Amino acid sequence: MAEEKQEKHGEFEREPVPASKTRGLKAFVGMYAGEHCAGTELMIGPLFVAAGVSAYDVIFGLLLGNLLAVFSWMFLCAPIAVRTRLTLYYQLEKICGRNLVTLYNLANGVMFCFLAGSMITVSATALGVWFHFPMPGLNDLYPNSMGWVLAVLGVGAIITVVAALGYDMVSKVANIAAPWMVLVFLGFGIIGLRQFIEVTGAEVNSLSSLWHLCTTSIWKGGDPLPGQIKFTFWHVTFFAWFCNMAMHVGMSDLSVFRFAKKSWHGIASGAGMYVGHFMAWLAASILYALQLHLDPSNTDVLPGPLAYRAAGVTGLICVIVAGWTTANPTIYRAGLAFQAIMPKKSRFAVTIGTGLLATLAGMFPAIAMRLLGFVALYGLILMPMGAVIFTDFWIFPKLGLKQYYAEHRSLKINWAAAAAWLVTLAICVALVKSGKPQFQLYFVALPGWFIASALYIALSKLQQKGETA
Amino acid sequence: MRKLMETISYLSLVAIVVIPSLFYAEKISLDMNKTLLIVATVVWFASALCWMGREKES
């Protein structure tokens, strides 16, 4: 009965997923491959080139960084997910109290809005090819033409209304588009490579000659473009590892892997990493490197024109669909996060408001053009709560500390967890502001995780002094 | 009918990879590559809509 009741709401939001509802590896492979081949991949690949990556750094950095991301899903997130089988939000509520979860939802919702905004930006660049309005450049922060504003508004309005009506239809289109989209991304890479061979006159008939073309023409290394940060091997590695930090180290995907039969099913994330965050990033970066090779003064990172030059109308459809199908669930999720804060407002109204906020964000190219930094910031902000969950689950029983303290003491807010989150963020911001290269935004989340864990343990010891577990 | 649509869908997906490969091998021009890609795309969406996400007939 309880199961039937939960099924109506669909997601077993406040009870463990029963064994009968768990799923095998295959279900997660398809989901991750589709979800991580998104519109934003068409921005990230080119931004690597703009950051002056070399061929060795980008290829081996991505191989290592994506492997570390898969390990984070397999060994940090999935083991807790299959043991508790609870959503992230319910688990957080038990540890941190309802009020702190509300704050977490607010932070999560706002970050989702900006992310959806950058996806709308990507889709709008495809309209620029058809309607020929001026589009933003690499270093533009504000909208630069009325045509751009109207394009983003049009795309954002459609996405918002569809998300508010419930995204069953979009979900269906997304499922159908996913395998096609992955292969079109692969096609971008193959076409871009051929065009590179033609314009450079290179002869590619072996792996070594291909590598020579990669190192001398595609990912040449050297200085970044003006206004960009230089990316080394370690930047690429850490970016690939942490760009989904909110989901693995930050434990958002507890909500996904609570349905997994085994914790090793976390390996399914590899499908998303090596298809979306390896092949798709490299393919998109080849198209941008070709643009720079043909006209070094054209530094614009505009997925629409890039895709159109390689694959014509198919490329434009791919850009629109990639942005649309990923912006929609993102707006929907942001809406759910905000609705948790305002439960009396209808989901329709909240999603419309959320979509408008995302559309407004999408008008400002600063977010999409600074996507590397934004994604790193997104992971950093939500990471400390992942450390709190990890510590509470694995370390607390060994130290004789009480798990799920907020639930145990009926607290609205667990101040130890709140302080661990906010103090960690303050320390990380201070480290970034110090300007030391080892504490750049892309790296600081690693020491941050240990800081958050240590703070939560120390503060919980103080908080639980005199109590027994 | 479903089997036929599934076969057409999978063939169109194969085409999405084969067409750029033919361009890479200099067997077709860039314009031909773009034309064939849009044909394969239309075929994929039209055929996949007929069976993907629908229950299999018993």
The figure for the number of domains of chain A is: 1
The coarse overall form of chain A would be globular
**The CATH architecture of chain A:** Up-down Bundle
**Major β-sheet of chain A, in short?**
none
Largest interface: A-B, 20 and 23 residues
Number of helices of chain A: 19
- Fraction of residues in β-strands of chain B: under 5%
Computed structural class of chain B:
mainly alpha
N-to-C SSE string of chain A, H for helix and E for strand? HHHHHHHHHHHHHHHHHHH
- The name of the CATH topology of chain A is Amino acid/polyamine transporter I
Low-confidence stretches of chain A: 1-9
Number of strands of chain A: 0
Please provide a written account of the structure.
- The complex is a heterodimer of chains A (469) and B (58).
- Chain A is mostly helical and 469 residues long.
- Chain A has one domain: Amino acid/polyamine transporter I, CATH 1.20.1740.10.
- In chain A, 72% of the residues lie in helices and 0% in strands.
- Chain A is built from 19 helices and no strands.
- In chain A, helix 4 runs parallel beside helix 10.
- With 58 residues, chain B is mainly alpha-helical.
- Chain B has one domain.
- Chain B contains 2 helices and no strands.
- Chain B is elongated and about 40 Å long.
- The mean pLDDT of chain B is 92.
- Classes of the chains: A mainly alpha (469), B mainly alpha (58).
- Chains A and B meet through helix 8 and helix 13 of A and helix 1 and helix 2 of B.
